[in-house]
Structure to design on (724 residues):
């Protein structure tokens, strides 16, 4: 069963079409990667899911029903631009936001304390939010997103501004939530994380969804005739080979598109004969990053 | 049934407001500030009235000059040495020369002055005053009263009017007021009038104190993006309504604290004995109206403020743009001064039923007059309609603009928003 079904969603701001006839489905219990460059329409789509913006067209269904207050109460939302009342105290903030979702009492307070302990913020419960570092404020925002035990979680760029230790902590919790059967939207422009964590994806570009579906299927669709190579040495000779269509070289590893699937054997032989030290050779594999580049034609660092 | 989200927003904000230092300080300090203003004003008047002056009183009529001197000796300002007066007979032709001799002294101190009361003044009451500071109203008024009494006495005395009649002629009239009601009449008091004006001042202080910071709070929530998280749980109307309700409740709590001494006094008049002319006689009706009106006024202004503030990304921009709207708070207050001279005139009557001005004017009229019941009801209804319109318009602007950033909307855009369903 699908947790969320989005059909023909459109949002205009004046003459600008921010989201253009977008459709995708999110099965229960998966991490759904909403991918795309900055300004691709991801956040606007999320805001429509959350009823912050009213769509100009299209429908959003949560477990078969149009989204309403029930969905709002059962969703946890971590916005891209973090937003907390900075003058409120840490624990008060968490309890207030949980109460807005219909959860209050001793149990939710105990749960908040447990999360604060896990995030090493249990000594800061009486601190005002503005007294915390940016990273710690982000932890509070993250706790407030999941404290009310939502069935559906939306994380818009959850790792931005975090150090590697905290990224790992967030990642572990996200995977735990997935393990609990929660559906998670993971919006990002960082393909590396998406590739490691997502089960399904939708690739946004200029307000449209260019492709969507299970990540494995998407990769399979684009991986034919593609080789991912980790190496040392010079591969400059490849561009002159007639069986090589395209080379995306990143220094230590590259993605090579071949003319024919069978050309992979020839490629391996040529690499060895040119003295290239091959560390890893994945035939019929492609990174999400390369799929993204091939679909959007993007060259910037965002991609 | 109150919506859960709205109630949660209300609960959080009322807690935040009532427990804030700003609330405690404003509530406790405001009466001190009010009394302080009155005290400072009185003290300033006292100080300016007690400014020492060197005065010359001259006349070409020695008898008249003696009478004025005798009269002035009875004045406290003279006996205390505040006015140091020199009396000098000067004939009319010699006056210019005398004035020339005193010019350096007059020029040396702006509080100095020279009066010339010619004998002719007994017929035409024309007195001349020479000073570098003709704006010294305190001195002029003080002397004018004495000169007038002496001139009247001397004039009528010369006409042969007996002394007792003369005293009657120079005595000021004393009109004692009696308030007529269905139950009879009783001696009039300025107590109710003072309370009426006091209430109008308190309303103004409270409304400004509650409404003005609201825009900053809205803008802060917008700029720190907290509103985006909140809007995933409650809709903009609930969010705005919760905030407004919390501020209104805070205002009512504050006003109750301020008016508590008055309530106690009205309920237990024996606690304070006042002279008849300062007696306070107020029924519960004025308090009911006062609070109903106060709540409506706050709702109206907070809805307008909330809506407009949501259009801005910085408090500075908002303050500049909202300055004309701020007049909605201040200008109606000045209507109170229109009722000072006669709370029953038709202008006062109309202002007491006109939205916004009625906030301040009607409490004054209710405290000083027996106002027909339909008039406060009309005032409440008119304010109620305006509240409804303000909440509709403010809520609509807030809903649309609270998440918008960047360029501020034009007036045309705002007008188009208001026309949206």
């Amino acid at each position: 069963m699908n947790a969320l079904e989005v059909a023909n969603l459109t949002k205009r701001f004046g003459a600008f079409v921010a989201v253009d006839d977008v459709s995708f489905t999110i099965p229960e219990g998966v991490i759904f990667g909403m991918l795309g460059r900055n300004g691709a329409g991801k956040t606007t789509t999320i805001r429509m899911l959350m009823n912050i913006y009213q769509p100009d067209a299209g429908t959003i269904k949560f477990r078969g029903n149009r989204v309403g207050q029930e969905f709002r109460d059962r969703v946890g939302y971590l916005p891209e631009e973090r937003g907390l009342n900075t003058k409120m105290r840490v624990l008060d903030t968490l309890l207030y936001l949980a109460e807005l979702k219909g959860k209050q009492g001793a149990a939710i307070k105990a749960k908040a304390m447990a999360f604060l302990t896990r995030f090493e913020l249990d000594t800061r419960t009486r601190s005002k939010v503005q007294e915390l570092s940016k990273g710690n404020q982000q932890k509070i925002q993250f706790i407030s997103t999941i404290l009310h035990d939502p069935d559906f979680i939306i994380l818009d760029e959850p790792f931005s501004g975090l150090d590697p230790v905290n990224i790992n902590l967030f990642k572990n919790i996200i995977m735990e939530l997935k393990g609990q059967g929660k559906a998670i939207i993971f919006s990002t422009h960082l393909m590396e994380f998406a590739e490691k964590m997502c089960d399904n994806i939708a690739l946004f570009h200029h307000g449209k969804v260019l492709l969507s579906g299970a990540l494995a299927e998407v990769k399979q669709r684009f991986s034919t005739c593609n080789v991912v190579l980790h190496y040392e040495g010079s591969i400059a000779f490849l561009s002159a080979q007639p069986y090589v269509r395209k080379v995306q070289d990143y220094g230590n590893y590259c993605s090579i598109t071949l003319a024919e699937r069978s050309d992979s054997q020839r490629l391996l032989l040529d690499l060895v004969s040119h003295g290239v030290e091959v560390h890893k050779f994945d035939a019929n594999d492609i990174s999400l990053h390369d799929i993204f580049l091939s679909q959007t034609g993007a060259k910037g660092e965002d991609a | 049934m109150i919506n859960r989200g709205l109630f949660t927003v209300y609960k959080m904000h009322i807690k935040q407001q009532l427990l804030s230092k700003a609330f405690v300080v404003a509530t406790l300090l405001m009466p001190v500030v009010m009394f302080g203003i009155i005290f400072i004003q009185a003290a300033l008047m006292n100080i300016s009235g007690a400014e020492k002056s060197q005065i010359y009183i001259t006349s070409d009529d020695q008898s008249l000059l003696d009478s004025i001197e005798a009269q002035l000796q009875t004045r406290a300002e003279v006996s205390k040495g505040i006015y140091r007066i020199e009396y000098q007979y000067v004939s009319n032709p010699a006056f210019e020369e005398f004035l020339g001799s005193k010019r350096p002294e007059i020029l040396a101190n702006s509080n100095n002055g020279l009066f010339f009361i010619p004998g002719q003044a007994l017929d035409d009451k024309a007195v001349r005053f020479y000073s570098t500071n003709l704006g010294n109203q305190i001195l002029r008024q003080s002397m004018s009263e004495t000169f007038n009494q002496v001139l009247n006495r001397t004039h009528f005395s010369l006409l042969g009017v007996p002394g007792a009649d003369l005293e009657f002629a120079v005595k000021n009239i004393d009109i004692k007021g009696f308030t007529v009601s269905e139950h009879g009449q009783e001696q009039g008091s300025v107590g109710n009038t003072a309370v009426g004006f006091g209430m109008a001042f308190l309303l103004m202080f409270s409304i400004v104190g509650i409404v003005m910071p609201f825009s900053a709070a809205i803008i802060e929530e917008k700029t720190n993006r907290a509103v985006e998280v909140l809007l995933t749980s409650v809709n903009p109307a609930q969010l705005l309504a919760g905030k407004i309700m919390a501020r209104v409740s805070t205002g009512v709590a504050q006003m109750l604290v301020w008016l508590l001494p008055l309530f106690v006094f009205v309920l237990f008049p024996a606690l304070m004995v006042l002279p008849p002319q300062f007696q306070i006689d107020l029924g519960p009706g004025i308090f009911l109206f006062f609070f109903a009106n106060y709540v409506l006024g706050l709702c109206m202004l907070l809805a307008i403020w909330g809506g407009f503030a949501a259009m801005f990304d910085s408090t500075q921009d908002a303050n500049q743009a909202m300055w004309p709207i701020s007049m909605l708070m201040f200008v109606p207050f000045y209507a109170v001064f229109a009722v000072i001279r006669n709370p029953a005139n038709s202008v006062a009557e109309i202002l007491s039923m006109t939205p916004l001005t009625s906030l301040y004017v009607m409490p004054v009229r209710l405290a000083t007059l027996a106002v027909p019941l339909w008039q406060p009801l009309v005032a409440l209804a008119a304010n109620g309609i305006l509240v409804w319109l303000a909440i509709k318009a403010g809520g609509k602007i807030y809903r649309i603009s609270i998440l918008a950033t960047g360029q501020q909307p034009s007036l045309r855009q705002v007008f188009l928003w208001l026309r949206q369903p």
Observations:
- Chain B has a mean pLDDT of 84.
- Chain B touches chain A through 20 residues (CB under 8 Å).
- Residues 53-170 of chain B form a domain with the Rossmann fold fold (CATH 3.40.50).
